[in-house]
Each structure stands twice: as structure tokens, then as C-alpha cells.
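Predict the 3D structure for this chain.
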Amino acid sequence: MAYKWRALLAVSFGTYMATMDFSIINVALPTLSDEFDRPPDVVIWAALTAALVSTGLTLTAGRAGDLFGRKRIYLGGWIVFGVGLVFASTAPNIEVLIACRAIQAVGVSMAVGTGNAIITEAFPDHERGKALGIVGSVVGAGLMTGPIVGGALLGFGDWRALFYLRIPIVFIAFALAVTQIREPQHADRPAGKLDVPGAVTLFAFLATALLAINRGQAWGWGSPQILGLLAVSVASFAGFIRIETTSRSPVLSLGLFKQRTFSIAVGALVLSFLGQSATLFLMPFYLVEVRGYSTVQTGLILATVPSMMLLLSAYSGQVSDRYGWRHQTTVGIAVVAAGLLSLATLEASTPAVLIMARLAVIGIGSAIFMSPNSSDVMGSVPRSMLGTASASLATGRTVGTSVGLAITGAVLVYVAADAAGLDVVANTRDLPPSALLDGIRASFLVAAALSFLGVVASSMRPPTVRASYGPPLTAPAAAAPPGAGAPEEGVAS
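Done. Predicted structure below.
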């Protein structure tokens, strides 16, 4: 097997396990609440802490891969993740479990932050879209199948099985990485040390902003906690910008955002996940509480989306590689938006086959969009910054999902409570199905509107010259000063 396929196999296996880790814990939250005799607003931190840590560290991990070697950081991530699993499986209380989840998230950020960079280095430019398309389908499959796998593990054992049964899989992922991934020796590897002040302020900015968005509905948007978090986030962002404009080796070169392809592709990714996140959040409420489906049936229906991505993402990447049509991403987000709009027409008696047809539209649109968009991000930066680009994809996906969940969750509660004539909703089970359905429809309308913003953003993407048509038409631009100016054209100009 050629090296590129061996590297893809190793990274895809790791990517699936890493992304599944985010969603596998969600299904166990009620069990953890009962096991430790703690309220839901405490056990939710087992999931929330992992999201905060991973979002705050992924860009730093990607930059560390650029500086010190991507294989080295990737392998380190699996070691850290494995240690977190071992300790989590023996956690005596919820506080220790939450700390172990933070350790796991550090490992996940190291693996996810470098995965796409390893793939981009392994594949020639004219096959980059296809390879990243396969990785994109694996990401979707991991996020969607996490609850299914988690439910199955809980069915055969206690909550600790979620952790100790995955320890052998970590050894497999580590062994694949050691034996199948090379550490390329590039003369253009950047010199310098990791920008620690930039990394700290970046973590503070992303973590506090994400926490405020996630907990705003529960704590109250005008509460002192939320206002304080937002103030810290703004101050951290200002400090981060100041540090990055003067650093000789910035965590995130601000000049990347002067590269139009990079900035638009990352922005379109965030807007796309603002809308797509509604599917994972809202459909279980509809299927279980409005329609009365079992959790197994719900999981099978929701598997429609990743199934379409698995079938079509690689082909979408091949089309992107061959034709280089810049509007492919725009069409993809438009299809996703249309699918979300169709979900806003769900009735209490909509047949299962028509529900799955609507979800299939979203999966098809995601497959059309993700592969070329990821390829554009990875192809718009110098090879010395592939780790940063890879981490930008993961961070954009997490930020978009988190903000989207906060927005659609707020719309769901507000509209459903108004339809039911209630001032406060402590639990969605307190709502009549008709009121809950009204809230779900309204939330899908908002999600569709957010995705249409992604259509507008993606349509502004500049034309690109694919590497498959020969060498770049112009020589790379001179390197910009650290932290400022546009970077040189990258893998594919």
C-alpha cells in the first residue's frame, strides 16, 4: 500500500476515535447523575469541560506540530488521551471524572490539530480534496455514532465501560501512527519557540467565550457570571491580538486572514456548522419526545446524515480536485440550508422515510461542501503552517457547533414555552408535544437562515488555480513579517 493511503488509514482511525469522544459521553450524563447522586447541571461539566479545553488548545496544538513535528505531537496526543481514559475508568467521584475528561481533551486537541496536516503532506495536491473528503466523512461518522456506541456500551456494562473498553483502541491508534506515519523533514519548518503568552490568551478567549455561549441560557444572559465571562473573553481577545502582532513566532499568524481564500473558507465552515448543529440537537427531541421513537430507532434515523457523508465525501473531493469549481462549496451549503428548511415543515405524523429523506439532503449538502472547503483551507497556506490550518478547521467546527447549539436551544425554549403558555421551562418533558414541535420548527427555520449566511459568505470565495493543472501561475509571494501581512501562497495557489 502506498504511503499516502497508509497515512490516511492511520489518521482516519484516530480521527474517528477522537471525534466520537465528544459525543459518546452525552448519552451517559443521566447515568452519571444517578451514579454520583449529583444534579444534571453538575454532570454536564463532564461534556462541557472537554469541549472547552479542546477548543481552546487545538490551534496551539496545530502550531506546536508546525514547530516541533506533526507526528510527534500526534503521538503525544494519543498518549495523553490514553492516560485520561485509564484514570477516568477508576474515577471515584464526578470531580475526578471531569478532570480526567480535561486530560482526554488535551490529547484530542493534539491529535485533531495535526491530523489534516499529516494527510495534506502525504497526498499530492491534485488528490488533496479526495483525501480530506474521506477524513471529513470520518468526522461526521464519529460525531453521529458516538451516542449509538455509548448507548451500546452502557447496555453491556456500567458507565466505566465507556472508558476502559476504549483503552485497547488507543493502543491500536498509537501503533498505526508509529508504523504508518512519517515525519517529513522540510527545510521550511519554521524556527522559533512556541508563543506561550499567545497560547494562554487564545485559550482564555476561546474557553470563556464558549462557556458564556453554552451556559447563557441556563445562568441567564444578564447574570454576573455570564457578563464576567464575556468581559474576560473580550479582554483576552484584545491581549491576544496585541501579542500576535508583535510575536516572532505567533500561535496564529494574523496575516492568514488577509489571505481571502483562507478567511472565507474558515468563515463559511463556522456558518455551516451554526446551522448543521441544529440537526444533532433538535432531532432527538422530535423523534423521542414528539414521536415516541426509542433511542435505538432515533440513532438509526440520525445515522442517515453520516451515511450520506461516508458515501459521497470522497467523490465530492475528487470532483473538486478535477474541476476546481469554486462554487461547489456554495452549492453544498445551499443544499444543507434547504434540508434544514425542509425539517421546519415536520409534522407530528411525518412518515419515517420522509424524515430520513430530509436528513439525507443535509448529509448530501455536507458532503458537497466539506471536502473542497477543507482543501481550500489547507491549500491556501504555506507548508510550514499546515498544522495551523488543520487546527483552524477543527476549531471552526467546534465554535460553529457550540454557538449554533446555544442559538437554536434558546429559540426552542422560548417558542415552546410561549406556545405552552409557560414562563419558565425546567425540562422539555414538561411541554406538550404540540408546543415542543412549534419550538423545533422555529429552531430549524433559524438554523436554515444561519446556513444561508454561509451561502453568502462562500459565494465571495475567489477563483483558485488547482495544482492538478500544473505549477502555480505566479511565484509565491515573499514571506510577510511575523504576525502581519499576507502569507505566501501555499500548497495550491
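The domain at 3-195+247-466 is CATH 1.20.1250.20 (Growth Hormone; Chain: A;).
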